[in-house]
Amino acid sequence: MSAARRGTVYLCGAGPGDLGLVTGRTRELVESADVLLVDRLIPKELRTLARADAEIIDVGKTAGNHAMPQDEINDRLVEEALAGRSVVRVKGGDPYLFGRGGEEAMRCRAAKVPFEVVPGVTSAFAACAAAGIPVTHRDLSRHVTVVTASAGRDGQGDPDYEWLARSDGTIVLLMGLRRVGHVAAELVASGMIPSKPCAVVSRGTTGEQRVVTGTLSTIEGLVLKAGLASPAIIVVGDVVELREHLAWFERRPLFRTRIAVTRARAQSSELVTQLTDLGASVVEVPAIRIEPLDPAEIDAVVDRLHEVQTVVFTSRNGVDRVFARLVERGLDARVFGSVERIAVVGSGTADALAAHGLRADVLPPEGSRTAHGLLETLVQLPLFGTRCAIFRAERGDDRLPDGLRGIDVDVLLARCYRTVVQPATAEQVDALLAADVVTFSSASTVTNAVAMVPDASQLPPCVTIGPTTTAAALEHRLTVLQQAPEPSITGIVAAVVERALDNQGISPWRNATAGATA
Q1: Active-site residue flag, 91
Q2: 160 annotated active-site
């Protein structure tokens, strides 16, 4: 087969578990791959970046249980590449640090298959950093040794404990949770003092991170008592004592809070990012998806904008759809050049408009950022006898156009998109029911989330984006913890954080008292 027909194998590190720590290069390759061979420990969100037609092959391994033997993985990489496909091998951590990436690269080289290695952030350092443990420190440790605590198939794979025991630096042991007692005992038997500080970091850099600290003589009992789960790393050295001063990851306001986001996946990234940055463990359960409507109504209104004095956008979805259509037609923001004013319902819509170079002139005051609130703001302006264009959803609030017509405004209405039910998988429903709190960004997300579950009373308490959404939640007898102070992503996040601070860092969300009424 000619070289031109051959695909390339990409050996990619996916980092320690946090999607934000996946490199840009790995993301790009995952998004464009024909075939992905993925490990168990990669961030689950990374899979969602793959093309819809990409083949995803699980080759994950657990102790004593390999979904696909390594030799078969090596052969599959070569077979797919020789068939002309772009093959991405996604590994937790770094592919060349106890990831058997070297073996896979050698197999590609032997078959004359082009390959590229994309380094990843290793948990050996990232999990320590998230736990508040610097692996080196000028006064405590001038070097770090990284080893695997996992024994080989014949049980002869132990590291050289006598050599490690003589170390005056930091020791990081990967894949060793089940052998923490053995590791501690071997180090002590080899001459290391029993009081040497030791830590175990479980699921580091994720919302499920847990850390246990002790000494070599106490760590096994502490880990058993805590019930830590894999993956985990063991850290031995004086730097462990710095955790008392440098722990930061667990101190974020939403740490260990499980939040279900029901917003359409195409729009949820900003909300997910903000919640994750504050420590939340976020699961996306999109209750709706946004579908564009036939652009005829948009085109008809756009073609008459020169006759219009006021333009209204009721959501960022409307903004996005209108500007997408303008691009399709070879147009841009200049079509609004003769318009006197642009009005929006909320700050999120204003931000979406600003991204296209336009400033919102009219915005209802905080506390009234709804379609009705915008109407009350607009009727105070000299609109009598003018023309207004409204870009909105298929099923928008008719009080706005009807109210404007009531003051003799000629309304041009363009329905730009519709929201439709997004079917949920069994896994997503389980995650929704297990969440501490669920966020709702529209009445339709409430209705569709309720339809996902056998009994609405099973749903977690919720935070809503505004009064219309709150009313929908209360109609279904859901517990509304808080309503966003303004109808925006920032408002939702602020409401969740406020409630979390009220809970004083605990997570008694399901026992909380409702904080909003219709």
Answers
A1: no
A2: no
